[in-house]
């Protein structure tokens, strides 16, 4: 490794088939699109997946393995919250047929089984779990965890895979303030992971990059189609890419709150997944959960037994 090396891309240099999976549901898979386009340009096979908030059981689409739905441009779901379907249609508009493999919202155990089955089906040899935001790094005793259920279920599921390269990539530093996350605690987590050798640095996404231009185009198209529920995270990242700063709003969904659009929001923060999973204080307690409600109960019980660390302002 040297000054001109990207540790993130170096970790994926020998991979033949990379699964880029949205860990927290909704638009999280969009945060992996710049990396998706770059890895494809390097000649790698890249597959997109996402933990989905869509009513997958109501869709007419292929189910290649239990717990996984293969969504493409022909999958009808216009009456639902369905970013995966609209993303597939965006690819079709560009002349490409790109499926997305969607996981149901479950507890950690079924999600772990679904990931294992998809691995056996596709044979990918590396996984990048992408988080729109930074709350996946919260270990459990912070004042705010954001929306941990989906992120930690995905973290535990990927951690169990027999794959050599398993990474976590966060995009959207600052956006989770909207969900009560203290970013001083995020930076503390980065420092702790750096001490363990698990921090792979930051990679700036710049508007002039072709991969970023495609990401912006995809976000713009899908958010326009889903005008009643566009992505707060994705639109905030686009604002940062375009040089906006401060309390800048692109959707009515954020009206009444104060946003902090900032240059760090458009950077990839990359980590080795194994130490991220090892650092999570309550991951093991969730390993046998079957439903999201069971996960919520265990998290609430766990938190009630802790001394919660209070909010810290970043002293700059």
From TrEMBL:
It comes from the Bacteria. Pfam families: DUF1152. InterPro entries: DUF1152. This is DUF1152 domain-containing protein.
């Amino acid at each position: 490794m040297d000054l001109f090396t990207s540790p993130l891309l170096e970790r994926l240099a020998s991979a033949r088939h990379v699964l880029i999976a949205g860990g927290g549901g909704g638009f999280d898979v969009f945060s992996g699109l710049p990396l998706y386009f770059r890895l494809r340009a390097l000649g790698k096979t890249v597959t997109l997946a996402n933990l989905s908030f869509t009513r997958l059981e109501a869709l007419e689409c292929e189910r290649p393995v239990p717990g996984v739905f293969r969504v493409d441009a022909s999958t009808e779901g216009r009456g639902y919250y369905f970013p995966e379907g609209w993303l597939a249609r965006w690819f079709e508009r560009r002349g490409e047929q790109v499926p997305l493999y969607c996981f149901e919202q479950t507890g950690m155990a079924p999600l772990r089984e679904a990931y294992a089955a998809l691995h056996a089906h596709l044979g990918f040899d590396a996984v990048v779990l992408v988080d729109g935001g930074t709350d996946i790094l919260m270990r459990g005793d912070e004042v705010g965890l954001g929306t941990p259920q989906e992120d930690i279920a995905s973290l535990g599921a990927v951690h169990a895979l027999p794959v050599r390269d398993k990474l976590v990539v966060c995009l959207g530093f600052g956006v989770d303030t909207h969900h009560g996350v203290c970013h001083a605690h995020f930076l503390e987590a980065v420092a702790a992971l750096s001490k363990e050798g698990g921090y792979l640095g930051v990679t700036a996404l710049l508007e002039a990059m072709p991969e970023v231009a495609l990401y912006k185009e995809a976000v713009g198209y899908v958010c326009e189609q889903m005008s009643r529920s566009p992505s707060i995270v994705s639109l905030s990242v686009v604002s940062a890419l375009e040089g906006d700063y401060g309390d800048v709003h692109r959707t009515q969904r954020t009206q009444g709150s104060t946003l902090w659009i900032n240059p760090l929001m458009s950077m990839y923060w990359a980590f080795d997944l194994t130490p991220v999973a090892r650092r999570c204080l309550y991951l093991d307690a969730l390993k046998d959960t079957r439903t999201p409600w069971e996960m919520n109960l265990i998290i609430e019980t766990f938190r009630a037994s802790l001394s919660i660390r209070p909010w810290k302002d970043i002293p700059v």
